Amino acid sequence: MDQRETTRLLRQVASGEVGVDDAVQRLRQAPFEDLGFAKLDLHRGLRQGIPEVVYGSGKTPEQIRAITAALLAAGQHAVLITRLETDAAAELEAGLDTGMGLEYFPEARIAVAGTMPPPDGMGRIVIATGGTSDQPVAEEAAITAQALGNEIVRLYDVGVAGLHRLLSHTDEIMDASVIIVLAGMEGALASVVAGLADCPVIAVPTSVGYGASYSGLAALLSMLNSCASGVSVVNIDNGFGAGYLASMINHMGVAK
Amino acid sequence: MDQRETTRLLRQVASGEVGVDDAVQRLRQAPFEDLGFAKLDLHRGLRQGIPEVVYGSGKTPEQIRAITAALLAAGQHAVLITRLETDAAAELEAGLDTGMGLEYFPEARIAVAGTMPPPDGMGRIVIATGGTSDQPVAEEAAITAQALGNEIVRLYDVGVAGLHRLLSHTDEIMDASVIIVLAGMEGALASVVAGLADCPVIAVPTSVGYGASYSGLAALLSMLNSCASGVSVVNIDNGFGAGYLASMINHMGVAK
Amino acid sequence: MDQRETTRLLRQVASGEVGVDDAVQRLRQAPFEDLGFAKLDLHRGLRQGIPEVVYGSGKTPEQIRAITAALLAAGQHAVLITRLETDAAAELEAGLDTGMGLEYFPEARIAVAGTMPPPDGMGRIVIATGGTSDQPVAEEAAITAQALGNEIVRLYDVGVAGLHRLLSHTDEIMDASVIIVLAGMEGALASVVAGLADCPVIAVPTSVGYGASYSGLAALLSMLNSCASGVSVVNIDNGFGAGYLASMINHMGVAK
Amino acid sequence: MDQRETTRLLRQVASGEVGVDDAVQRLRQAPFEDLGFAKLDLHRGLRQGIPEVVYGSGKTPEQIRAITAALLAAGQHAVLITRLETDAAAELEAGLDTGMGLEYFPEARIAVAGTMPPPDGMGRIVIATGGTSDQPVAEEAAITAQALGNEIVRLYDVGVAGLHRLLSHTDEIMDASVIIVLAGMEGALASVVAGLADCPVIAVPTSVGYGASYSGLAALLSMLNSCASGVSVVNIDNGFGAGYLASMINHMGVAK
Amino acid sequence: MDQRETTRLLRQVASGEVGVDDAVQRLRQAPFEDLGFAKLDLHRGLRQGIPEVVYGSGKTPEQIRAITAALLAAGQHAVLITRLETDAAAELEAGLDTGMGLEYFPEARIAVAGTMPPPDGMGRIVIATGGTSDQPVAEEAAITAQALGNEIVRLYDVGVAGLHRLLSHTDEIMDASVIIVLAGMEGALASVVAGLADCPVIAVPTSVGYGASYSGLAALLSMLNSCASGVSVVNIDNGFGAGYLASMINHMGVAK
Amino acid sequence: MDQRETTRLLRQVASGEVGVDDAVQRLRQAPFEDLGFAKLDLHRGLRQGIPEVVYGSGKTPEQIRAITAALLAAGQHAVLITRLETDAAAELEAGLDTGMGLEYFPEARIAVAGTMPPPDGMGRIVIATGGTSDQPVAEEAAITAQALGNEIVRLYDVGVAGLHRLLSHTDEIMDASVIIVLAGMEGALASVVAGLADCPVIAVPTSVGYGASYSGLAALLSMLNSCASGVSVVNIDNGFGAGYLASMINHMGVAK
Amino acid sequence: MDQRETTRLLRQVASGEVGVDDAVQRLRQAPFEDLGFAKLDLHRGLRQGIPEVVYGSGKTPEQIRAITAALLAAGQHAVLITRLETDAAAELEAGLDTGMGLEYFPEARIAVAGTMPPPDGMGRIVIATGGTSDQPVAEEAAITAQALGNEIVRLYDVGVAGLHRLLSHTDEIMDASVIIVLAGMEGALASVVAGLADCPVIAVPTSVGYGASYSGLAALLSMLNSCASGVSVVNIDNGFGAGYLASMINHMGVAK
Amino acid sequence: MDQRETTRLLRQVASGEVGVDDAVQRLRQAPFEDLGFAKLDLHRGLRQGIPEVVYGSGKTPEQIRAITAALLAAGQHAVLITRLETDAAAELEAGLDTGMGLEYFPEARIAVAGTMPPPDGMGRIVIATGGTSDQPVAEEAAITAQALGNEIVRLYDVGVAGLHRLLSHTDEIMDASVIIVLAGMEGALASVVAGLADCPVIAVPTSVGYGASYSGLAALLSMLNSCASGVSVVNIDNGFGAGYLASMINHMGVAK
Q: Where is average pLDDT lowest: A18-32, A143-157, C166-180?
């Protein structure tokens, strides 16, 4: 099944000419979708029933619109578009069909097309940051996880230098299903939170800091060496990856 | 409650003088146990019903024996002793009460005192290694996870240079609840496995390699940059950390 | 033979005053050409019958034109001008003699003057990339190799996180004469491809990525540590070097 | 086909019970050989007619003997055993069948079982070192390439600080089919040789040096930045990899 | 004043031939003492009335004895000998005059000759460690500070992964005059302690850890990036430097 | 006590409705102040009687104004606003109540609201720089320390390459209570100054330099390895941190 | 002698009121000159009779003019102004007295005020570069050395990849008094030149290159590890330092 | 001229059969000497009249003896054998002809065969070290320079933390012809000495130190960034290179 065939099929779906079930059946047999400018892996989305993710950076609004339409047509309820700057989001929105809802989250640089799903995970995902500068990466994680069907609790600016700020949220931490900790500079928050919690902690070093923070290296090494159990680490500033993994864990016990 | 009081209490429990429920109640109120040479955090174990872990390295057999006895007396069913060399294990075993079972796993350098629990997690933890040299760290992860109540599937020596070796195990990978991937050198296995799987992947860089592997740095950077979603990373050679986290995730949907 | 003499000679060749054979003979004896702003090594080109390469960056259109004219006059069939930005290419083209063909490849930032040679290598050079962002470096390799007389097969966006995309091209990989693999982030593609192939694999780390990719360092280390045999590595983003070396290998068994 | 079946088949071949053609046929269908302690990829060897390589480090003499016997029985003419220390080689030799020839090269730490093949490549592989300390890695490359059917020319101790030593070998360099350059410290030799040669140059940084050589890092970076075309780099001290790749290139134009 | 003269003077002091005041007067004018194997800076000690420090590593017992005797003779009440291994300490003690008291602290690898001074600082120096493995460096700091006239409070094994262990010592932290925090691995303790305290915090990264702790680098970077005010850092494992500086600060308001 | 309540209280204080003592009493019980965009830790300031510090970077003039007003209303005599660029300072000043004094120090990028306190430390803080380029960071340290009640002596451009420049200030160095040394490039000044002084030396590596200075890394390593006693180090370019710590030390013997 | 006094003295010299000898005598006694914005070390210049150097970067044209005038008035024949961009040079030139000659070298970013001295060194300084991109740093070295009284031989673009280009200049290399070698990328030229020469070689790594050249780090390490004797290294891109040191060496045997 | 011929010639020289002049004449025409285990470059020695250097590490006593004899026979007055451990020196001495003088310097690990030449340089070479641990490398430099005909002044243990120790030697520093500065840890001594001196300073970082000295890296970076003019740097611990270069500079004005 080459690109033209796939495009034709998706258009037929969009126009109602071909039923979704039928199309899904045919797509299941094609290992992946080659639209020339991007290869879509439709299998994972279809198989798991979770939103498909489109990496927005470096794609034109037209390309994003086409991919999004194709995915929604193929049965996705929501499409997550990441790394989308404000300008691109405005352009994207301007050209959309009125029927296709689109919500843009500027701080997270994420747009969600379709319907934001209700939370259906096991519990709540707590997202804690060391300082206010970590917030954009934290929001990327938060919106990602929310769009994947999770309830989020935000604990922002609870860095270890003022421990009482963190300790006043001990309950939320103890009750969390998964915790994402974001911190730049010395990255100490991950260990402290993990010491208080009973659940998996995903540590995200951020590039916040200066001098010997080396754009997140200090936080990265700090988090990798955490003396607390249950901590694992993703790439510097990788809010999306943390949100995605957190959602995966928070849906462990949930029937797909 | 100081050290002497705690020791007395534990001895009373061991001798039956004080009931376990009673002791647990009293211990719950003491934040931690100070034995002079080691502080035990009895809360986590008691609260969660999972085995307590003793870091064996740098402790004498006498100390390990005392801690282990105290923990078993306090109601633990199993005690995991990590980083225990063969000699130390032999010495430890020699001085043990006959009643206290002790199994030693030399490759993993782990001993388990008490009763190895039956698997009670959601699914299976798959442990995959790139080469045979990664096996000791893999076994540390495996025995840790097993002692914490998980069923383990070992896929050893399935490095990416011979892809068919890995692909012949696609079923195990697709069915896994959590996957631990261990690899040194270029660490590529984590991305490949995560691309095949639908579950969280915990990547463990190992110090296997030479030259520009820089004792695991190449694998560490490779894994942190994985283009596959759902991957997080722990410290180089941290088999225990990976096994512990994997167990945590594999028990997400299970009533504690 | 100083610069003025050489310029005079090349002008005489250009005007037909001196025959090409004659000029070649005289040039063979001069070890290299000093045009003031650039030293041309005419020996290699003449001896090997392969296109001469001009490094365009930092040279004015006039300088490039002069060098190119001199080289074509001296008997070269094609001249490869690398690292040439779009603006400079337009300027260069504007001032060219109509007789001198010039084709510009903007993504590769390469212009080819003269006649693009037909493929005369042993087999095909496969060029595989992990993601779409690697494409500019890949095209630099591709156009370089094509201008040196090779047939190219492009396998773009076949990163290891979606293994089926790569595996659907197993035939092209098995049949290749040489393979160039370009990848940023974790650079795992090189090992996986080399495991599937029987031919030399030239790995090009790209600076694609963020955070702990360290502008190609993660991919570089990963590729240097490849556990697959037959892999060697060139500098980060060095598409030209990879294309040049691939051509060299693909012409091993071919009479010069 | 599990391990027992394979072992049985190989024994039948060894005893003449099953013909080699038959066995080869059956083995072609089994993706790989699992002997428990090592997985053999019989495909590549059989398909390409080149010696199989056994990584000796960390294997017992018994294991090496079993693998070697199996491979020879399966039709290999030569088996290359790398990273084999002198003691292990002596032990290995002691237990061998008299019929199975074994030659040990202590400096290269390589043993060759079976019959060393005659050179059947396109030309000669030149191996050049910067200093005498690079010799062990150079010999690993040399014996590897020789065992894979190549003629070797050794140019040892021709470092750039005494350029006349290198220049007195210009002929060998100009005539080479492939060149392997090994150097520690500043690694400058690779660029100089590549500037003199018309063929692919494989650069091997060695860990020779002290202080700011950082165990081969200075040479590695130097070689990756070579301003000469046609140079690619393998891992620090990776003599085997260089020899293997050089052989691959030297057999490009040769019918398999 | 050359070496022989100085030695003679010191011997005269030791024998009572020259009065201490007299000798001190003469020494004040000589900028430093050259004993051939070591140059003593007698000024600082005399001027400040604090113990002189002898770096024991690499000196023979005879040399240490001579220096110590000279210093005590010159009016020092205590001489601190650092980096002194157990064997060397035993040898040193064996040859000492009975009149010269010598106390050896094996874990700190420090010997104190003369009289350990009473605490005369402003307040107490708290020394906190993340784990038990940090203890030797902590003891080096503790004995140094004690020998310089400070009262020490030890808070060992209060790492951030079990925050309650640290919080149970909030009073000691709030009341400290200076705090020395020692931690390896992620080094997070410094920030947490500094957030609780009102006094200067001297952070000592230790080389405790493995993998990506890089022998203290992770802790060093973490501490340099502390988001808490009042933290400064000394070299990895530099217990002596921390103890010396802490004493300096703790004597700020005390008349010299 | 939520944000609205706190704001209301602060306004009541500002208007005289609630007495300062009363408000302080209430605020003491609230662990921290959450204004939405910033959490204020009022405890430290109130308890210690020292100026509160507001990190200006990334805050709007309105936010800074609100925080500053709240702090002054709560009884602070001075508020230090750091990392405030010239433009932001002008904007801030424009909107201020006339009654609230504001002085801006452009080189230090610091504004001080309220009344600059008189020096009340034990002695003088000497601030020495290696070169004129270190001056902005030095001024950040100087104004910070001055605003915290210290007398400052500036010794700028006294780098070690012209030792007489430094030695002509030996008196100021000998008499200092604390010394802050700022240097980029080789950072040698810290050791030289510490060798001359009897007081704590806080070393601040600056990012001044080029090439192998690596933006302050060379100076940082140099300072961490200082062979002089009494030296500790803060982050690269961390003038504020050095000034804050110096003030803390200079007020050690002073009743709070 | 404070700043005002010095300025007055220099003005008196400029106006003829005070004789140069007299002024020099007075200046010899003052350790250094403090003009507020810059401290001049007049001693070295006067004592050694060599041009004074003014670091132009970050100084206003007025400041440079004042310093230059003062220096020329104090008896200097030439003043070297380094790191002076083209715009600043034009501004500087506009405001100069007509009597004060000023020559600007844009590629070297150096201006020379006064009279360029005739060569009075022992021999010639050869300056060799690997490629044309190294030229600006090379010119900084060349103009510096020329202004300090040296004859310069430029060998540009003689990188090791085309060895014949270098070898055709063997005579100049053999006859040199000192050689400065500038190279980026792999930095191999220093070793090769040093192997051909009998004189001191000053190696200057340049930041020319991309990818794993790491802005001159590869060249720096390569040069530090040179296997040739007589090579020493200065900072990356430090053309001035190399020119200054080369002049110093080239004037070793010359009476000052 | 092959190896056998050369050996024969040298033996004839040794036995008096061939005159030295004759042999020298013949050897001048042979570019270099290949003894199988080492290539001797007899040209430089003969041409320059300076001692030949033999790198002792990794050579057997027999090999060293043969090379030394050949060199002395060829007219060298002294042969410098570097990196020669005490045991090897004893063995070497045992087998020597009585006529061939051999002096061994254990701290420098250097032996000198033949006659130590009288100083014939322009002035004195000062060798300064920061601490006593730098002494072995300093002695390597000192003996090298002495054997090459230089007068040495040793200033050991004059580190910058006790500046008066260095300043008391200002005269020696001011009078030096060349200065070698060796320092580990922070390496500050090079800048301070260069600021005091008027002559070339060769900086040798040593691997002395611990923690963040990173085996000489801190000192290396510090020295490369020296703000003093006239400083250049050699590899970490490269005492020989520094002594060799210093001698070269100290003989600049001396007729060869």
A: A18-32
Tokens of A90: 């405005």
Element (H, E) at G145: helix G135-147
Name the pTM for this structure. 0.86
- Minimum mean pLDDT among D58-67, E110-119, E193-202: which range? D58-67
Q: Where are the alpha helices (DSSP H) in chain A?
A: 3-15, 20-29, 42-48, 61-73, 86-94, 135-147, 163-167, 170-175, 189-196, 217-224, 239-250
Distance (Å, rounded) from C-alpha C35 to C-alpha E39? 63
Q: Is the Cβ pair B132, D31 closer than 8 Å?
A: no
Determine A/C contact with 3+ CB pairs under 8 A as the test. Answer: yes
Give G146-171 pLDDT, tens digit per residue. 999 999 999 999 988 888 888 889 89
Vertex F152: Cα angle to F148 and F157 (nearest 5): 130
Query: CB D41: neighbour CB atoms within 10 A?
Result: 16
What is the distance between the alpha carbons of residues C192 and G219, in angstroms, rounded to a whole number?
A: 32
> Using the beta-carbon criterion (under 8 Å), do B235 and E211 form an inter-chain contact?
yes
**ipTM for the whole complex:** 0.83
CB contact under 8 A, H58 and D133: yes
User: Which of A82-91, A239-248, F59-68, H17-26 has the highest mean predicted lDDT (pLDDT)?
Assistant: A239-248
- Would you call G210 an interface residue with chain C, using a CB distance cutoff of 8 Å? yes
Q: Residue D105 pLDDT > 70, yes or no? A: yes
Q: Which residue has the tokens 């970067």?
A: G57
Contacts of C249 (CB under 8 A, 6+ apart): C177, C178, C200, D200, D249, D252
Q: A92-106, A128-142, B152-166: which has the minimum mean pLDDT? A: A92-106
Q: Would the CB atoms of C163 and B195 count as touching at under 8 Å? A: yes
Cα angle value G168/G172/G175 (rounded, 5°) = 140
Q: Give the pLDDT score at D98.
A: 60
Q: What is the mean pLDDT of residues D182-186?
A: 92
D183 bridge partner residues: D205
Interface check for C132 against chain A (CB to CB < 8 A): the answer is yes
Residue B9 pLDDT exceeds 60:
no
Average pLDDT for B146-160 = 93
- 149-178 of C, contacting G, C-beta below 8 A: none
Closest residue of D to H31, CA-based?
D164
Nearest to H80 by CA among H108, H48, H106, H110: H110
Three-state secondary structure readout of chain C: CCHHHHHHHHHHHHHCCCCHHHHHHHHHHCCCEECCCCEECHHHHHHHCCCEEEECCCCCHHHHHHHHHHHHHCCCCEEEEECCCHHHHHHHHHCCCCCCCEEEECCCCEEEEECCCCCCCCCEEEEEECCHHHHHHHHHHHHHHHHCCCEEEEECCCCHHHHHHHHCCHHHHHHCCEEEEEECCCCCHHHHHHHHCCCCEEEEECCCCCHHHHHHHHHHHHHHCCCCCCEEECCCCCHHHHHHHHHHHHCCCCCC
Which residue in the set H223, H227, H229 is minimally distant from F130, CB to CB? H227
Q: How close does chain D come to G69, measured CA to CA in Å?
A: 44
Residues C116-172 have pLDDT tens digits of 889 999 999 999 999 889 999 999 999 999 999 999 999 999 988 888 888 889 899
Domain with CATH 3.40.50.1970 in chain F: 124-250
What residues are paired with B203 via a beta bridge?
B181, B233
Domain spanning D124-250, CATH class: alpha beta
